[in-house]
Amino acid sequence: MPDSVLLLTLIVLPFVASIGAGLLPTGARDTASALAGAVALIGLGMVWAAYPAISEGTVLRAEFAWMPSLGLNFVLRMDGFAWLFCGLITGIGALVVLYARYYMSSEDPVPRFFAFLLAFMGAMTGVVISGNLIQLAFFWELTSLFSFLLIGYWHHLAAARDGARMALTITATGGLSLFAGILVLGHIVGSYDLDAVLAAGDRIREHALYLPALLLIVLGALTKSAQFPFHFWLPHAMAAPTPVSAYLHSATLVKAGVFLLARLWPAMAGTDAWTWTVGLAGLITMLIGAYIAIFQNDLKGLLAYSTISHLGLITLLLGLKSELALVAAIFHIINHAAFKCSLFMAAGIIDHETGTRDIRRLSGLNQSMPFTARLAMVAAAAMAGVPLLNGFLSKEMFFAEALSAEAPVSTLLNILPIAAMTASAFSVAYSLRFIHGAFFGPEATDLPRKPHEPATWMRFPVEILVLTCIVVGVLPAATVGPFLSLAVHSVLGNHVPYYSLAVWHGFNLPLLMSVVAMVAGILLYLLLQRRLRSDVEGPPVIWRLEGQRIFERVMVFVSWRLARRLEAVLGTRRLQPQLRLLVGIAILAGATAAWWRGFGPGNLPPSPVDPVLLLIWVVGGACSLGAAWLAKFHRLAALILVGGAGLVVCITFVWFSAPDLALTQLTVEVVTTVLLLLGLRWLPKRVQLPGERGPEVLSRTRRLRDLALATGAGLGMAALAYATMTRTPPDLLARHFLARAYTEGGGTNVVNVILVDFRGFDTLGEIFVVAAVALTTYALLRRFRPAQDSVEIPEQQRDQAATDANEAGRAEPGRVADWLLVPFTLTRLLFPVMLIVAMYLLLRGHDLPGGGFSAGMVVAIAIILQYMIGGTEWTEDRLRLRPQLWVGAGLLLAAGTGLAAWLFGRPFMTSYFAYGELPIIGKVPMASALIFDIGVFALVVGATLLMLVALAHQSVRAHRAAPRRAATEAGDD
Amino acid sequence: MNQAADLPLWAALPVAALVLLGAGLALVGSIGLLKLRSFYDRIHAPTLGTTLGIGCVLLASMLFFSVLQTRFVLHEILITAFMVVTTPVTLMLLARAALYRDRQEGSAEVPPVPPAAPPVKE
Amino acid sequence: MELVLSLGIGVLAGSGVWLLLRPRTFQVIIGLALLSYAVNLFIFSTGGLRSGSPAILEPGEVGTIAEYADPLPQALVLTAIVIGFATTALLLVVLLAARGLTGTDHVDGRERER
Amino acid sequence: MRRWLPYPLVALSLLVLWLLLTGSTSPGAFLLGGVLAVAGSGALAALTMPAAHLRRLATIPALLLDILVEIVRSNNAVARIILSPGGTSTRRSGFVRISLDMRSPHGLAALACILTATPGTVWVEYDSSDGTMLLHVLDLIDDEAWVRIVKDRWERRLMDIFE
Amino acid sequence: MSAAIIGSAVLIAQIMLVAAMGCATYRILRGPRAQDRVLALDTMYVNAAILLVVFGIRSGSIYYFEAALLITLLGFVATAAASKFLMRGEVIE
Amino acid sequence: MTGWIDHLLIAPIVVPMLAGAAMILVGDRSRTVVLALGLLSTAALVVLAIVLLGLAQEPVVRIYRLGNWPALFGIVLVLDRLTALMLTLAAVLGFSAFLFAICRWHRAGAHFHPLFQFQLMGLNGAFLTGDLFNLFVFFEVMLAASYGMALHGSGVARVRAGLHYIVINLVASLLFLIGASVVYGIAGTLNMADLAARMRSVAVEDRGLLETGLGILGIAFLTKAAMWPLGFWLPPTYAAATTPAAAILSILSKVGIYAVLRVWLLLFGDEAGASAGFGGTWLLLGGLATIAFGSIAVLATQNLPRLAGASVMVSSGTLLAAIGTGQVAVTGGALFYLTSSVLAIGAFFLLIELVERGREVGADVLAVTREAFGTGEEDEESPEHEEVGVAIPGTVAILGVTFMACALLLAGLPPLSGFLAKFAILAPLLTYGDGGVPATTWALMVALILSGLASLIAMLRVGIDVFWASPAPRVPRIALLEIASVSLLLVLCAALTAGAGPAMEYMQAAARALHAPGDYLNGVLAVPTTLPGGGG
Ligand code: NA
Ligand code: NA
Question: Locate the MrpA C-terminal/MbhD domain: which residues (chain A) (predicted)?
Answer without folding.
Answer: 622-685
